[in-house]
Amino acid sequence: MHVPLLDLKEQYAALRGDIDARVRAVIDSQHFILGPAVADFEAAMGAFIGTPHAVGMSSGTDAQLAILMALGFGPGDAVLTTPYTFFATAGCLSRVGARPVFVDIDPATFNLSPAALRDYLGRVAVRDGQSGQLRTPTGERLRAIIPVHLFGLVCDMDEILALARELDLLVLEDASQAIGAQYASGADGTPPRQAGTFGEAAWFSFFPSKNLGAFGDAGLSVCRDDALDAKLRATRMHGMTEQYFHTFVGGNFRLDALQAAVLHAKLPHLAGWSARRRENAAAYRRAFTDAGLVKRSLITLPAEPWAEQPGVREHHIFHQYVIRVPAAARDPLKAHLSARGVGSAIYYPLPLHLQECFANLGYKAGDFPHAEAAARESLALPIYPELTAAQIAHVAAAIAEFFQNQPG
Ligand SMILES: Cc1ncc(COP(=O)(O)O)c(C=O)c1O
Question: For a FRET experiment, which of 137, 230, 237, 381 has its CA 20 to 30 Å from that of 109?
Answer without folding.
Answer: 137
